[in-house]
Amino acid sequence: MNENQKAPNIESNSEITLWVITKALLRRCHWLLLAGIVLGVGVYIAVTLLVTPTYESEVSFYVYNSSNNTLQSGTINNSDLQAAESLATTYSKILASNSVLDAVLKDMDTSSELSRKELSKMVSVSVVSNTQLLDVVVTTTDPEFSCKIANSFAKVAPTEIVRITKAGGVEVVDRPEVATEKSSPRVVFDSALGFIVGVILAAIVFIMRMLSDTTIYLPEDIERLTGVTVLGQIPDINVTDGNYAYWTLTEGGAVCYDPKAGQAQSHQ
After folding, report:
1. What spatial distance separates the first Cα and last Cα of the chain, rounded to whole Å?
2. What is the reported pLDDT for 199?
3. What's the burial of 22, exposed, middle or buried (CB within 10 Å: 0-12/13-18/19+)?
4. N or C: which end of the chain has fewer CB within 10 A?
5. Are 65 and 122 contained in the same domain?
């Protein structure tokens, strides 16, 4: 048995613990980093070459309960605010309805180029939590086209909501602007995520290999696993000269014979 054989550097009389696993991973940190870099670079290349950039344009609306309330008294009480919060959820559904989408398409005069279904996939409507605000986000591959659609929503939404609900209404808070930066893909974030996933996957592979390794490296491992005392072991003979063809064991160790030179060399 070769005691110099490469072992996992785990004490033969100890179990595999979290600290042992941590030390084993630290010894292989260069492989973990390499795996993370490879996957991170792969993600960077994939999102750069394969993913089409998209741009967002956003318009926000303020929901009010009664159009006469602010005009006549100029004040808003708590009941109006609570009613407006409830209306915000209803209005968000209306803004995503076919009626509003058709009105937007008509305003843009692109009914022959863009279908209602395609427009629906570009638009996301959400209610800002605990407020009377609605956000309409338009995402396309063209920043100017995204802004054009958002402008149409800002134009037709107040009229369509009043027409449908016959109560309350919305006012534009922030008008859309042409995006100067792409919203996706997030190259840096995605690449960093790929690096982290690569490190984690490599660590899992190393841990699984270590846990599944049943190789016996030292005599103490046999005693620990089986409870049987080791009486002796076969020494490892490292012969570097290809001319040695025979060897034998003596009290002084292993002796290799060179049949060509007729000489013997002792290996301890």
Report:
1. 14
2. 95
3. exposed
4. C
5. yes
User: Quick check: is 236 in a domain?
Assistant: no
pLDDT digits (tens, 9 = 90+) for 240-258: 555 545 555 555 555 555 5
Is residue 44 located within the same domain as residue 155? no
The answer as to whether 249 is a domain residue is no
Residue 8 is assigned to a structural domain of this protein: yes
Residue 202, CB-side half-sphere exposure with 13 Å CA sphere? 22
Domain shared by 96 and 168, yes or no: yes
| 3-class secondary structure, 75 | coil
Per the structure block, which two tokens stand in for 235? Answer: 């020494």
- CA atoms of 55 and 122, how far apart (whole Å): 11
Confidence of residue 69 (pLDDT cuts 50, 70, 90): very low
**CA 218 centroid distance within chain:** 42
d(CA 125, CA 19): 49
3-state class of 170 per DSSP? Answer: strand
Count, residues in the chain: 268
pTM summary value: 0.63
CB of 168 closer than 8 Å to CB of 67: yes
Which residue, chain included where needed, has tokens 């260069």? 30
59 and 170 belong to one structural domain: yes
Instruction: Count structural domains, the chain.
Output: 2
Distance (Å, whole) CA 217 – CA 221: 7
Residue 24: partners with Cβ closer than 8 Å, 6 or more residues away: 8, 9, 10, 206, 207, 210
Q: Which helix (H) or strand (E) holds 139?
A: strand 133-140
Per-residue pLDDT of 130-154, as tens digits, reads: 788 899 999 999 999 999 999 999 9
86: in domain:
yes
State which residues form the domain around 33.
1-51+185-221
Co-location of 67 and 20 in the same domain: no
